[in-house]
Structure formats: structure tokens, C-alpha cells
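User:
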Amino acid sequence: MSLSGGASFWLFDFLTTERVCDRSLFEFSRWKKFFYFDGGGLPPDYVDELQIKLSDAEMRRPPTWERVCDWELERKEVPAPYRVMTHEHVEFYAEEDQLSEYQECVLWSHKELVEYIKANLEKFEVITPREDQLSSPVEALPEVVMFTPGCIYEIWLSGLERMEMTDVEEIGEEIDDELEEHEAGEVIGVGGTDEDHHNIAVQCEPGMNKKALGCIRRVLKRLKANPETTDIWVQGESEKNLGLK
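Assistant: Predicted structure:
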């Protein structure tokens, strides 16, 4: 893997039968798939084999696409079903036949990354390294305490003028206070894409996903949020809208 950002990576188009430390193998031309890492860090048995300085061009994140929510299409709020985001955070929309020009926005955990590689082994070149390409033996690593990081909830609100509180920043503060009281997480972002499409992002504490969701729903119900126009998604999971159930 090649690090191209704080939590974004490139997967190479080859696998080796043993650990290697040969810079000539890790060429920009061999980058296969861009992805985001879900977990906020590297696994405890990660080993820094070598460091390669990247050019400005190699450091740029490729344009990535993701499918928009069904309700955005139904309300005709977007011109096409796929949203594309560039390195400069410029957002535009594309049709399905244009997606080959961009990378899919993929958020993987360690397990999902391994599953992807196993399912696509035939697409990777398997290299048996020479003796001079092998890495040195790994020194014993200290024991690391493992924990499961909390998820990020994306809250989307419309119709604020009919709520008890009409300012999205103040709504975010109410949710943040509730999360803090229950030690379940914190609000990490507030924004929106137009006059009536507002977003609040919540980072849950490890093991507190369910409790944090309860805090979010409690506040929104208290503020009279409309269940029909209130969506709650787990970042990276687009198949299930948790809403205000």
C-alpha cells in the first residue's frame, strides 16, 4: 500500500510471496485501486518496510464517485445519480456510463480489504522476490491493546423552519451536549449543500454506536424533526437509512 493521505491509500496491482523492501517494485504505474481506510490507523502488526517520496501529482487524490441517496433523485435535487468529488473538494455529478473515468469511493476495514484481495486474486500479479529484494526479519512487536473504533453518523435534515430550533449549528450543539452527557461521542461537523439540506456528522466513541444513535434520535425528536425528511446514515454504508425509528 502507498500512503497518499492521512487515511487514504493505494492498493498495488501485485502481491508478493514474502515481505519485500525493493523500491523498484513500488512504481506509480502499478497503483491499482484507491480506497479510504475505516479505522483511523494501521493494524498493530503494521511494519514500515520502506518510505518513498511522492511527487505532487502522486499525492493528489483521484476523483472518486459514490451513488447519491434515492430521495435526492426523487426530489430532483441532483442532475445525475452519481456524485464525484475531486482532490480540491469540487463536487459534480455523472451518469453511470461515465464512471470508468473515476475511482469508486471505497471505505474499507482491514477485514474488507483482505476479502477484496482474496476475491480478486486473479487480477493481481504474484511475485516471488529474489533474495536481494527481501526485507529484514521483523523485531518482536510490543503487545497492543485492540479496540473497535466508533462509527460516524451522517445526519441529513430538511424543513428546519418547522422544528423547535431552526439553526443547524444550534441543533448540532444540542446533539453534542447530549452525546457528552452520555460519553457517547461528539459532533465533528455541521454544514449543508443548499438552503434546506443540512448535515451534521457525529463521531461515536468506541463501543458506543448504539448509545450515540439513541442520543441523536432523542434530541431530534425533542426538537420536532420531521421523520419523513430526516435521514441518519452510517458513513460508508449507503444501504440502510436509520432515521428516527
